[in-house]
Design goal:
Helices cover 72% and strands 0% of the residues. By secondary structure, the chain is mostly helical.
């Protein structure tokens, strides 16, 4: 061996190198044989070496698992962020829970918000009953949103939390208006192509609210 096992640092390096290799040996009898040989060579109980070898296995498993997991560039947008606020700090944000604001959300987030709004409008409160309204995957989603918010603002003052929620809500409204504008523009173009003058005029009047 190129390692001097009488030297502590070299002995440790030798053990780690050897255990790293042994962690990949599949057959337990073969693995046990080599472990006992190593234990004899470095004068360390085989049980302790085996425990360290398992730590190598765990580390390697974690590394492979991380490589296999698809990398996601998705970040929490205003919809997820705001839903996290509603869930985590329900008592502050009753004014934001109205079905009139449903257009601000899309997809799964819209379904979650709709259940928030329906429940609040029926009960005038947020309590444990809201949990039963959400599907398991919806509850899991909103719990993740809330955890993100909690990690971000847990050290903030109540007033700062409210201001942050107001800022996100304004951004939501801006995005909602932009989506509505794009949708109206597409419908106006289609009405024009279809030569439907009445519908085009009606849609133009709706669009005028954005430029008045």
């Amino acid at each position: 061996s190129e390692y001097d096992v009488s030297d502590l640092e070299q002995s440790k390096a030798f053990c780690d190198m050897y255990l790293g290799l042994l962690s990949g040996v599949k057959h337990p009898l073969e693995q046990e044989t080599y472990l006992n040989k190593l234990a004899s060579k470095v004068s360390v109980p085989a049980a302790e070496l085996k425990e360290r070898m398992f730590s190598f296995k765990k580390r390697e498993y974690s590394r492979i698992k991380k490589q296999e997991e698809p990398k996601s560039s998705r970040k929490f947008g205003p919809q997820e962020y705001f839903l996290g606020f509603l869930w985590q700090y329900k008592e502050y944000f009753a004014d934001y829970v109205k079905e009139d604001y449903l257009y601000l959300f899309e997809g799964d987030e819209q379904n979650i918000y709709k259940k928030f709004a329906s429940y609040y409008n029926a009960c005038a409160c947020f309590d444990e009953g809201l949990l039963s309204e959400l599907e398991e995957d919806e509850l899991e989603k909103v719990s993740v949103f809330a955890l993100y918010v909690e990690n971000r603002v847990s050290e903030w003052r109540e007033e700062d939390i409210k201001q942050e929620a107001e800022r996100v809500f304004k951004k939501l409204k801006q995005e909602g208006m932009r989506r509505e504008q794009l949708d109206l523009t597409a419908r106006i173009r289609q009405a024009r192509l279809d030569k439907d003058q009445d519908l085009e005029n009606k849609l133009l009047k709706q669009y005028a609210q954005y430029i008045s």
